[in-house]
Amino acid sequence: MSTGTDPLASLAELPGVPEAVAEVRKAVDRLYGHRVMRRRAGEVTSEAAIRGARASAALDGADWPLEEIRRRTDFGGDAEARTVGGALRISAEAGQLLGVWRHSPLQVLARLHLLAVGDADPSAGRPRRAGEQAGPLFPVELAAAEGFDKPVEGVELPPAPGAEEVAARLDQLSHLLASRAEGAANGAPALVTAAVVHGELLALRPFASHNGVIARAAQRIVLIAEGLDPKAICPAEVGLAELGTASYRDALAGYLSGTGDGMARWIRHCGEALRLGVRESTAVCEAMQRGMV
């Protein structure tokens, strides 16, 4: 593989990562080759969007049945309803933000935050300022923060960095993504790039709230933009939810460690989640083929 000037290229050679990349590529190609995709690709995309949004909201503590989400028309009630509504808005709009993403990823992240929290929130669409704390990433952390008697699963995660470090690292991430969009760097596979964007946003927690759903949406946008999943039919969020928050936290701890083994564990986890998302959409295609959907 040609590494070019891509600083992420070396990550693609970490233990187990080449195999994860190959397995994901094979699974995605098989799904795109399904006969249902020839006639009903738009329906598969729509179904992947709602299932991905449901799973992302569940990872943020709003674990609603899919049929309840289909039935609802009002998501402005309690905190769980607002979480689900924000995830749905993000999922619906993510694919429309590709043009902006390629030259201004930070503008897209701001838009995603606005979609998540609504324009009535004074923090909507802007990163944390000095002295502002990031909200919990996982429901168990939220429960602990609110005084509920519920243990935090998995390893303990370090606190989010301060606003100054967040701004500097977001700028670095933006430059990296812009260079890839311009073709100056093309060494790392899409899975690796998407995993790094996902992990870095979880590490930084740049906004006061809803960082998890934003990081997962950014991963989806990268997978679309880099051509691995151009029709957005592979909801990795479903896989992350299926693997569970304890595994998610443990894999993220690997990313935060900065070690080769830790980074490899995180990328492999993202790859496994994406394969499970492919399995979900394959089941949707099979149901459509049998006339059940």
From TrEMBL:
PROSITE patterns: FIDO (PS51459). SUPFAM superfamilies: Fic-like (SSF140931). It comes from the Bacteria. Gene3D superfamilies: Fido-like domain. Coiled coil: none annotated. Residues 104-269 form the Fido domain. This is Oxidoreductase. It comes from Kitasatospora arboriphila.
